[in-house]
Structure formats: structure tokens, C-alpha cells
Design brief:
782 residues, alpha/beta, four-stranded mixed β-sheet, 16% strand
């Protein structure tokens, strides 16, 4: 060890007395300063303009690939080859290696000493980043320090891995330029290799593991995973061993095939270590972030814990459908990462991929290109054009395993337990496409719940239907499979219920949506039996049909008043605000005036305590509906009443056609605050019964949910989720909330940053430049 340290010390003296090492320091610091200040310019600008900041530490260092450490790691490959190109090549070209050969120094000590010097220099580069980290720690309130430390570890390990590769390349040649070029080439090949052989599962696993691309991302994001740490140690060991073998071959003049065999032997051992470390059951994790944003929420973990037996997730990819490329064999490894948080808590999850073909009639591009070809002819043509060599199943072969017709032969995953329980997990028609934690966990919860939350929709009296896809139906929010927030994708099942018979015991939520006829005595009796069970209820009325609903609501002390609630037509005045443009200049942006007619109800929530969904509403989020009838509450002793939505400055109009859109407040004799939606709760049979009563039924319909309103940010989805979350006794949709970020403010003001910016950007690298020049001058003087 003493000999190794002497070699390392001599190498460090050479490095720090040479202009190259200091030039790398200065350029690296200058580049880091520009990146860091660019990120903080955004923070200070947002604070100055009054925008809320949140999770600042994560956004500073990670972001969505645009954080400080994330960007810095992408430039390391430019600096390391310049550092390592002479580490051994210099010894070989000058002949000084012969002195080492003739001395009592082993090959391991030579390479170990050289690499130790590189590790110390790598730590010096990280120390440069530590200065920026300290600035963030001093200026971000409640900064997430463990996240920063994890990121520094990721950058350090990546730098050490690059250094080991550079050291090996330098040991191969006496020419420093060749060593630098081969190092850059090797790093490029290793990053590219993850895309090689992706059609073959075995080769795919090997090439993907070898590549360093993205390996430090988890560490930078605050997740310390044993697989990533072992990977860096294994890669370092691999190339250090290669360098020792190379030196031994030169020193002892070994046959080339002996050297190759040794290379292969080391590679096999490292590959086996890598394979073992990548097995989910052998992996361990530590999430350093304050909000644990790299970890499943507790509710998801609880669902996973109930899956005692094996879970298989099979992805069915229709190659004749528009989204076919999502899980082509070359993209499978990336797709698997979408379930990495679940595999962490259930290592025996098996991920399978099935490619098949079936025309859906929805891929217009494909139909236009091959209008006259059959399914078989189309897939054969695509196979030849794209050089697909993987297995592709026919529709008949897929049907032997699963019937995908109800899913429209779209991209879908089948979740299946060993006992045969099944459910589907879909992608959605939005910008993010793939399911989030809430949807994945909801699908898994279907497999572990003894009884799914089944919502019964009363039918037979002209009520709104959960199967109706027209404007007046409820299908969009209940069962639209390609809509992320559809309740069927959040863990609910639905069916129509006739009150001519008793409500089945499996129905825990009953929806009565605007009946157009009176319920018969027998139907009322069956409804009362359901109510007396203590299960939950949603009652939706509509202006003009109050008389059909009131016999039900009056049991709870609530009456829907005749007439329609109206508010005076009003104009949102033009809003002028100052915006900071990309050109760096402040400009005036004017939002034009918007008229909201009196016959459109736009209201705010008045109580947000019953559901966290309503707590997420902003001031400008509104519940929008064409009309409401007001609710009159005659409080009963055993019932707790909470108004969810109400409106002020309003009155009840018996005939809406009499109302002029030019009416204003001065023309109204009396204005009242009227309740529009109320939540009720009482104790029945030892459990809490929950009832939601609404004076309108159209705020849930298909038309209202997809109709954009100019100048109004409708929040109907929030209330739908809030209502069913509350009515399901907080069972579904899955609550995947995390602790709120505590780093929400920075101490820099605009004037303070104006001083700090140039000091960080130019002053810091300038100090290193002066220090390096002084050392160089002093060295030359000696």
C-alpha cells in the first residue's frame, strides 16, 4: 500500500503541476457556473414575478433531466480523456516504464497507484460541485441535503468509472492522442451498446447492463440502489483488471491469445456479479428525498403486500395499431422501468411481452398506405420493411390466451395472479399516455380486494345511464377506457339496478340520476331497505324534475326548491400583466374581457374538508353546469350537513326566459347564498352512511366534461373524483399523495442575485485560473 501511495503521490504532483489539469478545472468550473446560474435565473425570475416555487432542491439538481447534476454528468466524457490520455502512455513513450519494470513494484501497484491519483483528481472535480451545493444549501430554505449528497455520489462514481476506462486505454498505446481518442470512442460505444441486440432477450440483458448511460440518474435523483453502486464498482474493477493484464502482458511478453483468455475470464466473472446484482430479490434501495418521491406511497405498498402469490404482467402489443412502437423489443428495457418501483416491493413480478397483429380500423395512416392488403399481408409487408425478426402471433393464437376484443385490440397489459384472477391496465389518450401510480395500483387492487366497489345506477325512470356515450350519458367519467380519470380505470365497477327488486348486497354506492318519473311504492320500499342498510347514496336532481326526487331527499331533511338558480351576467374585466419573455425583456400581455352569461352556473367550492381532491382546487378552478336548482336543508338531529358548493349573489328564477343577460345586481330585489350540492353523513347500523345530493345532474355528463369554456377553468373532474372517493369511504381512487415539499423559497432577491450571478459565473473559475497560473509559474521557476 505504501508503494501504491508513492506512485499516486508522484502522479498527483505531475498532474497538479501541469497546465492541463488546471485547464480542465477552469473549463469545468466555467461550464458548471453557466449551467448553475442558468437554472437559478429561472428561480429568481419566478420569485420576482410572484410565482410559487416548490421542491426547489430537486428542480435545482435533478429536474426533468435539466437539473444541475443531470446536465453536468453529460459533459464528463469530454474532460476525463484529456486527463487520462497520458497516465500510462507517457510512461510507455518516454521509456520510464522500464524503470518500473526493473524495480520491485508489482503490476497491481503500478496501476493501483495511477488509478488512486485519478480518483483523487475526480474527487477534486466533485469538490468544485460541492461549492455550488453549499451555495444552494445556504440559499434554499429547508433544503433537501441528502438528495444533494446522493447526487454528488452519483457524479463521483461516474467520474471514477470513466477514469478506469481511460486508464485502460492509456495502457494500450504509447501515443497520448490515440489514448484520448480511443477513450472517447469506447465511452461512445458503451453508451450506444444498450441498443444492440435488443430483439434477443439474453443479449438485450447483457448489452443493457454494460452501458453506463443513465446509470447515475437514480443516484442523482436521490435513490441509492445496490445495483447501480455495484455496477460502478464492477466496471471500475473490470477495466482496472484489464489494465493490469495489459501491463503484465507487456512486461512478461505473453502470447496474445493468453491475454485474450485472461480478458474473457475477468469479463465473465464481472458479468456474473452484474447479473446477480441486477436480480430484483438481491437488490436493496434507499430513497434519500424528503418526500420519498422515488418510492411507492404507503397505500400502494399496502396493496402490493396483499399480493402474496406470483404476479405476471403481460403486455399485448398490436403491431397494426398506432402505438405499436411503445414496446417493440428495442424499447422493452425502457418500458420495464415503468414498473421498477413495483418490482422493488414485489421482486417476483414477471414482465412478459407479446407482439401480435389485428386490424382495428383506427390506424388511418396504415390504412392509407396499404388499403388493399389483408391483415396477414400487411404484417408480412411491415415485417420485411422493418426487418422484424421477433415472433409475431396471429389473432387466433392470442385468442387462446385472452380475448382482447372488449379492449378494441388496443395496447393493453394483462395483470394475472397465479390463481387465475385477471384485470387489464390500459394506456390513455392524453399527452402522458402511460398509467401513473394511481392507475397501476388501482388495477392491482382489483386483484386483492374481496369485493370491488360496485356503483349501481338506478334505471327504469329515464335516469342518466353509465353506459350511454351520447351527450346526455355518463359513460365518459364512468367507463371510457382510454380516459385516464374514468372511474373504471380508478378501481370501480358499474352496473344498472332496477328498484323493482332489492338492491344486491355487493352494491355499496347507489346513484339516482335525475329520474323523470315517480318511483312506485314497491320501488320506494326496496330503496328504503337499501338506505336502512347504511350503504352510500348519490342523488342528482335537475330543474323541472324536482318533484320526482324530493320524496327521496326529504327523508334526509333536504328539498330541491322549484325554479332555477341564476346569477347576473357578468364580465371578467381585461387583465393586464407583465411577462418575462425569452428575449429577456419585460412585455405587457393583455387578456381580453370575457362575458359569462347568466344561464351558465360557475361556482366555487365552499367546503374542502371532506376530500383532498377539493383541497387541490385553485381559486380559478370552477364547477361548471348549465343550471342548478337550490337545496333547502331542514336539519335533522342525527345527520351532519356540509354544503360542498354554493353560490352567492344569486336568486331563484321560475322562468329563465324572462331573464335578460344584461340584468345586473341593481335590478334584483334580493340576493341570497344558495346551496347547490350538499354532503350528508349519519350513523346507521354501526357504520357511517354518506349521501351526496346535487341540484344538477349535468355537471357529470359527457358533453359538459369535454366542452371547453373560454376563460373558465372547469374543475368538474375534481368534484367527480372527490365525490366517489368520499362515497367509497376513501377506498378508491387510490390516494397516492406524498408529503408536501418543504423547500419552497429561496433567500436570493433580484438585487442579491444580480451581485451573486457574476461572482458564481466568472469569479469562481477566475480564482481557480489565477491559482493554477501561480502554481505553474512557481513550478517553472524551480
Amino acid at each position: 500500500m505504501k508503494t501504491t501511495w508513492k506512485i499516486a503521490k508522484a502522479e498527483l504532483q505531475y498532474l497538479f503541476y501541469s497546465p492541463v489539469a488546471w485547464l480542465i478545472f477552469v473549463i469545468f468550473t466555467l461550464q458548471a457556473g453557466l449551467i448553475y446560474c442558468g437554472i437559478w435565473d429561472g428561480f429568481v425570475r419566478s420569485k420576482t414575478l410572484g410565482y410559487a416555487l416548490s421542491n426547489i432542491t430537486y428542480n435545482n439538481f435533478v429536474g426533468w433531466g435539466s437539473g444541475f447534476f443531470m446536465i453536468i454528468q453529460n459533459y464528463l466524457y469530454l474532460f476525463i480523456p484529456l486527463l487520462t490520455m497520458g497516465i500510462m502512455s507517457r510512461e510507455l513513450s518516454s521509456g520510464s516504464i522500464n524503470l518500473l519494470y526493473s524495480s520491485p513494484v508489482s503490476n497491481s501497484q503500478i496501476i493501483g497507484g495511477k488509478y488512486l491519483a485519478l480518483v483523487i483528481y475526480a474527487f477534486s472535480l466533485v469538490c468544485i460541485l460541492i461549492v455550488y451545493s453549499i451555495i444552494s444549501i445556504a440559499t434554499i430554505e429547508n433544503v433537501d441535503i441528502p438528495l444533494i449528497l446522493s447526487g454528488l455520489l452519483g457524479v463521483f462514481l461516474l467520474t471514477c468509472a470513466y477514469s478506469a476506462i481511460g486508464l485502460f486505454m492509456s495502457s494500450l498505446t504509447a501515443y497520448q492522442v490515440v489514448a484520448a481518442i480511443t477513450t472517447i470512442t469506447t465511452l461512445a460505444v458503451m453508451n450506444y451498446i444498450k441498443g444492440i441486440g435488443q430483439d434477443i432477450e439474453f443479449i438485450r440483458d447483457i448489452t443493457y447492463w454494460i452501458s453506463p448511460s443513465g446509470r447515475s440518474d437514480n443516484l442523482i435523483a436521490g435513490l441509492i440502489c445496490s445495483e447501480d453502486v455495484i455496477y460502478f464498482i464492477a466496471i471500475i474493477t473490470l477495466f482496472i483488471s484489464f489494465a493490469i493484464i495489459t501491463l503484465k502482458a507487456k512486461r512478461e511478453r505473453l502470447k496474445w491469445y493468453v491475454t485474450i483468455v485472461k480478458y474473457l475470464g475477468v469479463f465473465v466473472v464481472i458479468a456474473l456479479i452484474g447479473y446477480a446484482s441486477s436480480r430484483p430479490k438481491l437488490m436493496s434501495y434507499y430513497d434519500t428525498t424528503h418526500t420519498k418521491q422515488n418510492t411507492l406511497t404507503k397505500n400502494s405498498q399496502n396493496v402490493i403486500a396483499k399480493l402474496k402469490d406470483e404476479l405476471t404482467i403481460t403486455t399485448y402489443n398490436n403491431l397494426l395499431e398506432e402505438t405499436y412502437w411503445y414496446t417493440l423489443p428495442r424499447n422493452v428495457k425502457e418500458d420495464m422501468l415503468r414498473f421498477k418501483e413495483y418490482v422493488r416491493f414485489k421482486p417476483d413480478i414477471k414482465l412478459k411481452y407479446v407482439n401480435y397483429y389485428r386490424k382495428t380500423g383506427k390506424n388511418t395512416s396504415l390504412e392509407q398506405r396499404f388499403p388493399n392488403l389483408s391483415e396477414k399481408e400487411t404484417i408480412d409487408t411491415l415485417r420485411k420493411l422493418n426487418n422484424w425478426k421477433f415472433n409475431i402471433l396471429s389473432p387466433e393464437e392470442v385468442l387462446k390466451t385472452v380475448d382482447l376484443e372488449p379492449e378494441g385490440y388496443q395496447f393493453v397489459r394483462l395483470l394475472e395472479r397465479k390463481d387465475g384472477q385477471r384485470t387489464f391496465l390500459r394506456i390513455f389518450d392524453d399527452i402522458r399516455k402511460f398509467p401513473f401510480e394511481a392507475e397501476i395500483t388501482a388495477a392491482m387492487k382489483r386483484l386483492v380486494m374481496d369485493e370491488l366497489p360496485v356503483v349501481g345506477f338506478v334505471a327504469g325512470h329515464g335516469e342518466w345511464s353509465c353506459y350511454d356515450g351520447s351527450d346526455r350519458g355518463y359513460r365518459f367519467f364512468t367507463q371510457q377506457k382510454n380516459f385516464r380519470y374514468s372511474l373504471v380505470n380508478q378501481g370501480f365497477d358499474f352496473e344498472h339496478i332496477s328498484l323493482k327488486e332489492e338492491v344486491p348486497q355487493k352494491i355499496k354506492m347507489l346513484v339516482i340520476a335525475d329520474p323523470k318519473e315517480m318511483l312506485s311504492e314497491a320501488e320506494m320500499e326496496n330503496l328504503n331497505k337499501y338506505i336502512d342498510r347504511g350503504d352510500n347514496l348519490m342523488i342528482l336532481g335537475e330543474p323541472g324534475n324536482q318533484q320526482f326526487v324530493n320524496p327521496i331527499t326529504e327523508k334526509f331533511g333536504v328539498k330541491m326548491l322549484p325554479g332555477v338558480v341564476v346569477k347576473p351576467g357578468r364580465i371578467i374585466e381585461p387583465e393586464t400583466r407583465i411577462v418575462y419573455t425569452s428575449s429577456g425583456k419585460n412585455e405587457v400581455d393583455t387578456i381580453p374581457a370575457i362575458t359569462i352569461p347568466a344561464d351558465l352556473m360557475v361556482v366555487n367550492a365552499v367546503d374542502t374538508t371532506l376530500s383532498y381532491y377539493l383541497k387541490r382546487l385553485r381559486k380559478d378552478n370552477k364547477l361548471v353546469a348549465p343550471s342548478f336548482c337550490a337545496l333547502e336543508v331542514n336539519a335533522l338531529d342525527n345527520i351532519k350537513y356540509v354544503p360542498w358548493f354554493a353560490t352567492g349573489d344569486s336568486w331563484i328564477e321560475s322562468d329563465l326566459s324572462n331573464l335578460s343577460k344584461n340584468d345586473n345586481l341593481s335590478s334584483v330585489q334580493q340576493l341570497d347564498s344558495l346551496t347547490l350540492i350538499a354532503a350528508l353523513a349519519r350513523s346507521v347500523n354501526g357504520k357511517e352512511q354518506r349521501i351526496l345530493i346535487s341540484g344538477d345532474s349535468e355537471w357529470l355528463n359527457n358533453k359538459e366534461l369535454v366542452t371547453p369554456r373560454n376563460g373558465i377553468q372547469a374543475a368538474n373532474y375534481y368534484l367527480i373524483n372527490a365525490a366517489f372517493f368520499w362515497l367509497s369511504n376513501e377506498e378508491v381512487p387510490i390516494d397516492v399523495r406524498r408529503p408536501s415539499a418543504i423547500d419552497r423559497n429561496i433567500k436570493f432577491t433580484k438585487s442579491g442575485w444580480a451581485i451573486a450571478n457574476p461572482l458564481i459565473k466568472w469569479g469562481y473559475p477566475g480564482i481557480l485560473l489565477i491559482f493554477g497560473v501561480l502554481i505553474w509559474i512557481r513550478r517553472r521557476g524551480r
